[in-house]
Amino acid sequence: MAKGRRPDNGKRPQGKRPSGRPQNPNARPQQGRPSASPSSANIKKRPAPSKQAPSSDNIRQKAKRPAPSGPRSEINKPSDLRSRKTYDVENGTRVNVRPSSGVNSQDPRIAGRPLFGDEQIVPTGPVVEKEKMKAPPKKLSWWQIFLVRKKNKAEQKSKQKEEEAALRREAEKAEEKVPDVFDEMRPDVGEERRKHMAKTRKRETLRVAFNAFLSLLILTGLMIIAVLYVVDYVAAKPAYAFAAEGSIEHTIGATALVARNETVMTSTHTGELMTQATEGSRVAKGQLLAMVIPEGMESTLEDLQNVEQQIVDIERQLMMQGKGVAAKAVFSEANEEISPIITMIRQDAILNKLNNMTSYSSSIRVLMEKRDSNLKDIDFEDEQLTSLRGSESALKSQLESRANSIFADAPGIVSFKLDGLENEVNYDLLMSMVDSRCDELINQSNSIITGDLDVKQNEPVLRIVQNDVQYFGCILKGASMEEFQLGSSHVIRIPAEGISISDCKVIRCTITSDGLLVVFETTNSVERLLDRRTVNIQIVQTKTTGIRVPVSSLANADYDRMIATIFVNESGYARGYTVQIKDYDREYAIIAPLEKENIPSISTIVITNPQTVKEGDKVEK
Length: 621
Hints:
Blueprint: H1 56-64, E1 84-88, E2 93-97, H2 108-111, H3 126-133, H4 142-177, H5 181-185, H6 187-234, E3 240-242, E4 244-259, E5 262-266, E6 271-275, E7 282-283, E8 288-293, H7 298-320, H8 325-350, H9 357-375, H10 383-402, E9 404-407, E10 412-415, H11 427-432, H12 435-444, E11 454-455, E12 460-465, E13 470-476, E14 489-494, E15 499-511, E16 516-522, E17 534-550, E18 555-558, E19 563-570, E20 573-584, E21 588-593, E22 605-607
Antiparallel strand pairs: 1-2, 3-22, 4-13, 4-17, 5-12, 6-8, 6-11, 7-10, 8-9, 10-12, 13-16, 14-15, 14-17, 15-16, 17-21, 18-19, 19-20, 20-21
């Protein structure tokens, strides 16, 4: 092809028009070289492309131009050539500029733009400068980044859920629209399929039901095993006790009026009482019993009491060090007398019975005074104790010189506790009174007789029991005269004092409207009951001695025939034996083996809860 010639596009022949065709002044100019005729001078010519070889700078600029992207690249598309976009400099926006044949069409900016290309129009003016002046974006904090990511994830999840829901809806609609072609085309195969599905569902239902039943069966079995284990663990185990020799007593209770033959002594002066004899001790005629300290001697009396307390403390220390061998015997005797009272205090405290606490305290105080009095006669061979006893004698001498001394006018047992009935309640009253009078005195008198250290002139200070006898008068309900005949001896227990008085002789027994009026006489424990005007007693009616076991150990007891069965532990196995019941009460029973048998005997191991075993069961030793 000749240089500078327009290429042949294969549609029109090369060369000039034939001369025979008429010339049309409005026709399109001939392709090829422009004609030099003056008629074509006013026709617009397409600017010829520059034949200048492209420079290296232009090549670099074209190579560095970015690929068209975004809305700006759309203005260079060939379809938009007739509606080009440019920028409105004043408003900073793009406007459509339609090319015209006027002067604007020859604008060198537009004329110099390539006809086809992907170059991006870079606007100039205030908009570009404004964009350049913008500050770089701020860096987001980690918390803002976290919130943005969280928001994006939530949006993605919600969008994904919406898409899945839309897909499900489309699938459901498709299923509704599409018929079961398989069943329509092959009815026999569709029926078999339905039967197969029904059998599968039935088999699945049976499998689920069987698994549920098997689980329920296993759970029930485990529960039964657990219950049996708990019952076996919690169930009472066999308990044992030794058959021992003992006795059972049947008693009848009553409230008794205590009477004595007493002599009351008075004081000729007013002051504070200082005892010189122990409460409940036996005194001789003419012995110094007490002193009435007048006013002004309180400090001397207090010094004497402090010295006496120091003497008692040192005597106890010396006894603990092994000195004063005889002192141990005195303490042992006092402990034996106090121990039953302590036991009764504990029992009453457990049962919340506080009525007898004053009596317990008084009895313990009497025993302590008796012990301290006996310790004075023991020589501990200690210098400090000897010095304290000398100080005690000196202080007593000072008090005796100014105090009113009271001496015993008759031998007997001394007591410093008075209730005003000493001259009224005596032997003569008990032998002549009726049952109504006995009840009246019991209800009006105080059970505990108290003492007072403040003494007034010509008022009773102390009393002396002139003999060793005390009397109990009481009314017994539901008793017969055959049990309490005159001269019969009985045992009377006093739980509040923890003592049992034997050889209580009946000296009076009279039938009254309320029962029997019985008067007992005894010479035992007179000192222990000096501070009591009334006392609750238990009179022993019968007493049976033999092999004693708990009542709970009797199985199948027949109290009419007086026989029962006991289970004993023989070489680790439970064996039952029939025994004879000789006597019983609420706690114990006296039993004896039948003829030609030697079980039970002393030290036989008896099962006290026979309901837990059967004949031949293996039991633990």
